[in-house]
Amino acid sequence: MKRKEFLKSIGLASAGMMISTNETIPNNQLAEENGDCAIIPTEVAGPFPLDLSTNNFYLRQNIIEDREGKQLNLKMKIIGSENCYPMRNVRVNIWHCDKDGNYSGYGNQTGQTYLRGYQMTDANGEVEFITIFPGWYPGRVCHIHFQVYVSASYAAISQFTFDHDAVNNVYKFNSSIYTRGEDPQMPETDGAFSDGYNLQLASLEPNSGTGGYDALLSVTVQGEGTVGVSHIERQTSRHLIMEQNFPNPFLNETRIPFKLKFASKVKFELWGIEGKRILEIDKGRLSAGDHEIVINLKSLELLPANYLYQIEIENNSGQFKTCKLMTHYK
Questions:
Q1: 226 within a domain of the structure (yes/no)
Q2: Residue 3: per-residue pLDDT
Q3: Are 35 and 145 in the same domain?
Q4: Residues 208-252: tens digit of each pLDDT
Q5: Residue pLDDT, tens place only, 97-128
Q6: If you average pLDDT over residues 316-329, what whole number do you get?
Q7: Which structural domain range is residue 284 located in?
Q8: Contact 23/249 with Cβ under 8 angstroms?
């Protein structure tokens, strides 16, 4: 399968930058930490969203390209509102302006692709991006756009910003890069945040290793901590049910249970976070019932990271595919 076909089949998704070597956070601990989960306010996508879902190039973690600016390691944790549990295997898109307030793909930036990308949440409901700290432009405070694509029937669109003093400190202490100076806008006077932004305020801390910054934002969306079910997912589930691999995260070996409702030809694929296929296994024709695929990433000499895995089946009713994410740690 080609990269483009794979991206279409998974809803265009990926994940994982700074992989945690710890085990998955227990759901009850997450619920206790988050308390009563409040859904992130909906904001307009803005004049510069582009449809990332139709541009398979954007399956990537590092979205900087040639843009100048201080590195920003951005982590987002996606939570389901009904139980405060992590939303696993959902796609997160982000896009923002460069240090001078320009968006790729518009005006004199037509044809450019910088500072846009998407990933898929891991077992802790987290995605991570490597980008630069954004600049500002007239009428808008410093901000980053994002979309949480839960399923084909539901996506949450919003924006977030940072503590305003911290933002202007970035510009002040890096004035040779951010030559436009401090941000004159305040979140309270920005139309997108004038109705309150407590749930849209990301943390911002210096990173001594990169010389840049780390940011974290928890985002609560509608759901129960699981991927939503759309028409496409329902159609697939009538023929194929693929479970989350276990254990997950895992050290070397992991197992992927799946169930066929009807006898089908089965193909398994493993993909890296930048959309490169690593492994393909043709299982031939399998009978209806429960099956399992065992993967040992150590034997494949793969580094600790997040990987996408997909099962594709073919039977008398057509072709059906489903994809999830696994975490391999040291």
A1: no
A2: 56
A3: yes
A4: 999 999 999 999 998 876 544 444 566 788 899 999 999 999 999
A5: 999 999 999 889 988 999 999 988 887 889 99
A6: 87
A7: 231-328
A8: yes
pTM score: 0.70
In a domain, 143, yes or no: yes
CA distance 257 to 38: 34
Of the pLDDT bands very low, low, confident and very high (cuts 50, 70, 90), residue 14 is: very low
Q: No. of H helices and E strands in the chain? A: 4, 15
Supply the DSSP string of 148-217, one letter for each residue.
Answer: EEEETTEEEEEEEEE-HHHHHHHHHHTTTT-TT-S----GGGSTTTTT--GGGEEEEEEETTTTEEEEEE
Which amino acid type is present at position 86? P
**What DSSP line would sit under 19-55, residue for residue?**
---SPPPPHHHHHHHH-SPPPPPP----S----GGG-
Question: Tokens 């308390």, residue?
Answer: 35
The domain that holds 238 is classified in CATH as 2.60.40.2550
Q: Which residues contact 155 (CB under 8 A, 6 or more apart)?
A: 147, 148, 149
Two structure tokens written together for 90 = 């959902």
Check whether residue 272 and residue 177 sit in a common domain: no
